[in-house]
Amino acid sequence: MKKYLGMSLSIGIVAGIWFFVANSLGLQPWPAYIGWSVFFWEGADFDGVKRSFPCIVLGAVLGVITFYCIGLLGDIPGPGVTLLLASLMVMCLAFTMTIAQTSSLFRVASATFIGASHYFGLRGYLPAMEGFLNAAFVTSVGLILGMISVKLGAVFESKIGE
To answer: 5-52 pLDDT, tens per residue?
Structure first.
C-alpha cells in the first residue's frame, strides 16, 4: 500500500481541484480525466505529452469536419440513404484517424480517436466551436494534470519514505 500512497494522494488531490476548477469555468471535467489516462498510457512523461497532444487536436479537427459533412446530408430521400452516407463518412473518419499514425506527428491513434470521440460527445450540447475547443483543450489539460500528478506524487513519496 505504501508504494501507491503518494501517487494516489496526488491524483486524488489534483482530480478534485480540476473538478472544482472545470465546473467553476463551465467546462466539462471528464475529457481531461480521459486525457490524463492517455498521459499514463503513453509513458507518464513529457515525451508522451508531445506524442499525444497533436493527436488529440487532430481527432477533434476531424470530428468537426465529419460532423459538418454529415450535417450537409440533411434528409436525402430514400429509406436509409442518409444513414448509409453518414456511415460512409464515419468510415472515412476512422480510416483517416488510423492511417494518420503513419506520420511521426500523429502516431498515437488512440489519442486521435479520443479527440474525435470527445468532440462528438460534447457536440450534443455545445455549439460547434465550443465543442471543438472543449474536446481539444480540455482533453489536453489532462496531459498537464498527469504531469502535475506525477511531480506531486514524487514529492509525497519522498515524504512518506522519510
So the answer is: 999 999 999 999 999 999 999 888 999 999 999 999 999 999 999 999
Helix H segments across the chain? Answer: 2-24, 30-41, 46-73, 81-99, 109-123, 128-133, 139-161
Cell numbers describing residue 99: 492511417
* Closest to 112 measured CA to CA, from 160, 47, 56, 38: 56
Which single residue is written with the C-alpha cell 472515412? 92
Q: What residues have CB less than 8 Å from 23, skipping those under 6 apart?
A: 29
Q: Look at residues 155, 142, 109 and name the one whose alpha carbon lies nearest to residue 39.
A: 142
N residues, the chain: 162
